[in-house]
């Protein structure tokens, strides 16, 4: 089986050796004569999920639930279980993921390895904070159980450790209780970036979930205008799984549908389609958390050259000014993105040594890959982020320089010390060698 990363840039396919049963692991490892990398569901955008030598260890088929306790909301499952598979079981029983990213189509192993975060980072921190323990297979030691109290250093190096410290075999997770599968949400329009920051400071404490869509094509006094989408689980209601309606992009398009004309039209339409300042809505959790999951293979709209996501986080003191500079650079250079997501992160520290979030604000934008141009823009953005004391998200990255990575993740050598010598990714090779 051949696989690539979600952004399809850099274009590099890996051969996957899938395992169905954990007992197959030693034989599969022996079959690789060079280094390999664990592979989940390939929802990372850049090269952090691609093996340096093209040898991927496929964990997705190892996807059984090992134990569930619906009194306490503690589940233990093999690392190939998808977050969507957990929700199918847990939502009807009144439990939800304590932290979830913007797609539910990721494995438990991938969620731990990137220490993913979601719309509730300001109140719940990252995914790793809700992991009670996991089993890790290391080529030289075999199975090692890790938790915040047992093999703590290895636990901290593995949460957000980019799959480098071993193969996560199973994960024990604490879920959060819910009384309804519906979200009581509000969409609030804001007219520029300053407006966003004051709104966020004023209302974030009232909502568990907050995220803003930003019109990144707008300029001048409209710079950074957008819609703030906030919500809480409804306090009472029914616990139902949403009916899934799936669209798909059936073929690889020969060229990108994303260009300055479509971007300008989409951004103006999306901002103006909401006429009043504030709209209250009761929505199912599915469209609220996972709007993009309803279109399978939406990454094909970027054509064969693929796309890159640029996601940075800037510390609180510099966030407002740096975000202005970033958005000004993007719009004056004529770039734009359908997806531009802005969120203020909270101060809850993650156990992960290489975890991405920090107290401040994070911005994520998708750009079609255009040879020469996209990386030229990224060089300019990197210098703004670096001067503001920020960093980039390895799960989304395909371009950052080794120097920028090592400066902004100054503890990277601790993870290198815990790296399984048989494991190497394209990303890690690029930024540490
Ligand atoms: C539409 C969309 C929205 C997203 N939104 C967010 C978001 O809001 N927040 C966020 O944080 N991320 C977000 N992401 C990124 C995504 O959540 C992460 O990249 C996630 O880690 C992907 O998991 P995966 O199972 O697909 O793993 P892969 O992408 O296959 O692998 C990711 C990493 O995990 C390692 N890995 C996988 N399985 C194992 C294992 N069993 N043992 C050890 N290492 C393993 C791999 O080596 C690799 O380093 C989004 C991605 C998409 C496509």
UniProtKB/TrEMBL annotation:
EC id: 1.-.-.-
Gene Ontology MF term list: FAD binding; oxidoreductase activity, acting on the CH-OH group of donors, oxygen as acceptor
Spans traversing the lipid bilayer: none
Enzyme class: oxidoreductase
Span of domain FAD-binding PCMH-type: 1-178
PANTHER family documented for this protein: D-ARABINONO-1,4-LACTONE OXIDASE, L-GULONOLACTONE OXIDASE
Protein name as annotated: Putative decaprenylphosphoryl-beta-D-ribose oxidase
Gene: dprE1
């Amino acid at each position: 089986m051949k696989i690539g990363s979600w952004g399809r840039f850099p274009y590099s396919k890996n051969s996957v050796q899938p395992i169905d049963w954990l007992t197959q692991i030693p034989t599969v490892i022996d079959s690789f004569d060079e280094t390999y990398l664990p592979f989940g569901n390939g929802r990372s955008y850049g090269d952090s999920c691609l093996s340096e030598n093209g040898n991927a260890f496929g964990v997705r088929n190892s996807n059984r639930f090992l134990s569930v306790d619906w009194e306490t909301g503690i589940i233990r499952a093999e690392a190939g279980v998808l977050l969507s598979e957990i929700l199918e079981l847990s939502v009807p029983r009144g439990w939800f993921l304590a932290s979830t990213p913007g797609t539910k189509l990721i494995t438990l192993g991938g969620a731990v390895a990137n220490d993913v975060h979601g719309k509730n980072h300001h109140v719940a921190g990252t995914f790793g904070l809700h992991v009670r323990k996991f089993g890790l297979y290391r080529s030289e030691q075999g199975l090692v159980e890790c938790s915040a109290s047992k093999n703590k250093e290895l636990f901290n190096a593995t949460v957000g450790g980019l799959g480098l410290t071993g193969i996560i075999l199973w994960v024990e997770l604490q879920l959060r209780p819910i009384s309804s599968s519906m979200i009581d949400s509000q969409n609030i329009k804001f007219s520029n970036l300053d407006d966003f920051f004051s709104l966020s400071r004023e209302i974030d404490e009232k909502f568990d979930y907050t995220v803003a869509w930003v019109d990144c094509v707008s300029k001048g006094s409209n710079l950074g205008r957008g819609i703030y989408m906030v919500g809480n689980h409804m306090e009472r209601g029914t616990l139902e799984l949403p009916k899934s309606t799936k669209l798909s992009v059936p073929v690889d398009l020969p060229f990108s549908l994303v260009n300055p004309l479509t971007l300008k039209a989409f951004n103006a339409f999306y901002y103006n389609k909401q006429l009043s300042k504030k709209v209250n809505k009761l929505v199912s959790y599915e469209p609220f958390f996972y709007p993009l999951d309803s279109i399978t293979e939406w990454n094909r709209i970027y054509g064969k050259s693929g796309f890159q996501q640029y996601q940075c986080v800037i510390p609180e003191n510099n966030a407002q000014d740096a975000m202005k500079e970033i958005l000004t650079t993007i719009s004056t250079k004529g770039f734009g993105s359908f997806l531009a997501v802005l969120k203020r992160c909270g101060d809850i520290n993650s156990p992960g040594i290489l975890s991405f979030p920090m107290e401040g604000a994070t911005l994520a934008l998708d750009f079609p890959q255009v040879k020469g141009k996209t990386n030229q823009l990224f060089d300019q953005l990197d210098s703004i982020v670096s001067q503001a004391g920020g960093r980039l998200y390895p799960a989304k990255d395909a371009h950052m320089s080794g120097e920028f990575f090592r400066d902004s993740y100054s503890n990277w050598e601790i993870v290198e010390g815990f790296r399984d010598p048989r494991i190497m990714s394209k990303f890690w090779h690029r930024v540490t060698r």
